[in-house]
């Protein structure tokens, strides 16, 4: 009974995470029903003296020291419930289960309440960074009982990615706070991926840039204020040759994007909360439109589109850089706005500066911007929206003429930039003291007697229109 940490689910993520734990000198024991996966762990390399695994649940349970800390890295959904049920008869009061998958936050709340009755602490802990992150240092977003967290804290702080020595993990709040934050992280991820792909499309279609030139541009951007994991891997992708042919791999990949649902959940829940996240909404819609490949091919033949307009190469590249920078800020602003509102609605008591901090390394949306974002929330804990942060006003202002020109140029050239345009129009609307929604109120009252408020006096009004 001397293993510090248990891990259920020895797929790629699980194997990498447990080896990371062992590398950090904690004794870790893995469990998977599949003996092949158990065996695979022992061939992976790493600190094998500190790690062992079994396909026998009793052996696994008996190996763990009290209170047991058992992390699940299994697919979200019913499997999580099944694993919990299989563990339960073997557990003792005070043991801790941590779900490291992308579980839906209400499932986490249900499981937490159910297990609390049995004296078991349950954590939903989003883990970001893919397989490499799990092995070398992910960003971890745990939520659950603050007291019980003290048992997991040293392990998580050791295995998490570090930003200037600070671990990218923190206890974010009670119940499903961690899963919720990870869900919104993924919504922002969808937005940033969509924006990057639009900039790629724009540069390629209008300037006819080669993959090599695109590689150079993204690589240069990644060394400057656009420094981010997604820009970095985009540069890498353009340099990848195709193993199965002569060309570049990116050109051989089918343009139909798949999704597991976390981006969609972010949009759906933002709608429920009444918080606008149009950049994320559009990113989900674009994956859906991309899936309609066969219909797109038919439609493409039915309509003509303009040729991309003539434009100076360096000018468009500079416009694209500013547009990407602005729209990354817009994506973060929307996601963080949603988190701030969800924090009140679900009583998570989130500290937005801490969330921005633990996203600075390890996770998919890490970027050079997050340090400044964290600072903005340190300056004003209850900042409703990043666009209101004084430090961000000049950053955004400086890009806006280019963003407007880029969206106009793309529209005139028949190149779809829905993420960029949604980000721009989100900005235009959010920063307008007057919007034409007075007309909507008039229409609602006209056809449905839904009443309206006035700008010059208090009260609720109704008019017999046309009389
Ligand atoms: C991460 C990612 C990860 C997610 C994939 C795939 O933070 O490491 O968000 O958790 O599962 O990005 O998501 P989709 O299949 O929905 O694109």
From TrEMBL:
Stated EC number for the protein is: 1.1.1.44
Domain 6-phosphogluconate dehydrogenase C-terminal, residue spans: 178-466
Q: Which GO terms describe its molecular function?
A: NADP binding; phosphogluconate dehydrogenase (decarboxylating) activity
- Record: active site: 182, 189
Q: Membrane-crossing residues? A: none
InterPro entries in the record: 6-PGluconate_DH-like_C_sf, 6PGD_dom2, 6PGDH_C, 6PGDH_Gnd/GntZ, 6PGDH_NADP-bd, NAD(P)-bd_dom_sf, Pgluconate_DH
EC category name: oxidoreductase
Q: Which UniProt keywords apply?
A: Gluconate utilization, NADP, Oxidoreductase, Pentose shunt
Keyword Nucleus: yes or no?
A: no
Residue positions annotated to bind substrate are 102, 128-130, 185-186, 190, 260, 287, 444, 450
The record's family statement is: Belongs to the 6-phosphogluconate dehydrogenase family.
Describe the task this protein carries out: Catalyzes the oxidative decarboxylation of 6-phosphogluconate to ribulose 5-phosphate and CO(2), with concomitant reduction of NADP to NADPH.
> Quaternary structure?
Homodimer.
NCBIfam families from the entry?
A: gnd, PRK09287.1
Protein name from the UniProt record:
6-phosphogluconate dehydrogenase, decarboxylating
Print the organism lineage: Bacteria, Pseudomonadati, Bacteroidota, Flavobacteriia, Flavobacteriales
């Amino acid at each position: 009974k001397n293993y510090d940490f248990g891990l259920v689910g020895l797929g790629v993520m699980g194997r990498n995470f447990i080896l990371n734990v062992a590398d950090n000198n904690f004794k870790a024991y893995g469990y998977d029903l599949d003996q092949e996966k158990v065996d695979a762990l022992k061939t992976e390399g790493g600190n094998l003296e500190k790690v062992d695994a079994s396909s026998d649940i009793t052996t696994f349970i008996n190996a763990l020291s009290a209170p047991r800390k058992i992390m699940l890295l299994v697919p979200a959904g019913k499997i999580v419930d099944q694993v919990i049920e299989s563990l339960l008869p073997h557990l003792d009061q005070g043991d801790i289960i941590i779900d490291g998958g992308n579980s839906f936050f209400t499932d986490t709340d249900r499981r937490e309440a159910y297990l609390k009755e049995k004296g078991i602490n349950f954590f939903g802990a989003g883990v970001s960074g893919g397989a490499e992150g799990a092995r070398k240092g992910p960003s971890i977003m745990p939520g659950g009982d603050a007291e019980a967290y003290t048992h997991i804290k040293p392990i998580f702080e050791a295995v998490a990615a570090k930003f200037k020595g600070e671990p990218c993990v923190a206890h974010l709040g009670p119940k499903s706070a961690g899963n919720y934050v990870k869900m919104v992280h993924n919504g922002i991820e969808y937005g940033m991926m969509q924006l990057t792909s639009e900039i790629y499309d724009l540069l390629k279609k209008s300037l006819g840039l080669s993959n090599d030139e695109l590689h150079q541009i993204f690589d240069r951007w990644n060394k400057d204020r656009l420094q981010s994991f997604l820009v970095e891997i985009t540069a890498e992708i353009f340099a990848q040759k195709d193993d199965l042919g002569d060309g570049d791999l990116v050109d051989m990949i089918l343009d139909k994007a798949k999704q597991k649902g976390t981006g969609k959940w972010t949009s759906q829940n933002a709608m429920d909360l009444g918080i606008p996240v149009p950049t994320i909404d559009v990113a989900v819609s674009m994956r859906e439109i991309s899936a309609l490949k066969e219909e797109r091919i038919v439609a493409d033949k039915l309509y003509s589109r303009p040729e991309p307009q003539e434009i100076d190469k360096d000018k468009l590249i500079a416009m694209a850089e500013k547009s990407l920078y602005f729209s990354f800020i817009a994506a973060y602003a929307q996601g963080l706005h949603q988190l701030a509102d969800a924090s009140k609605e679900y009583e998570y008591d989130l500290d937005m500066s801490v969330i921005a901090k633990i996203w600075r390394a390890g996770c998919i949306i890490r970027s050079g911007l997050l340090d400044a974002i964290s600072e903005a929330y340190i300056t004003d804990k209850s900042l409703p929206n990043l666009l209101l942060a004084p430090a961000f006003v000049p950053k955004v202002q400086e890009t806006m003429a280019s963003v407007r020109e880029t969206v106009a140029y793309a529209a005139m050239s028949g190149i779809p930039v829905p993420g960029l345009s949604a980000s721009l129009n989100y900005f235009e609307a959010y920063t307008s003291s007057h919007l034409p929604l007075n007309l909507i109120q008039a229409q609602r009252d006209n056809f449905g007697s839904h009443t309206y408020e006035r700008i010059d006096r208090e009260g609720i009004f109704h008019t017999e229109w046309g009389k």
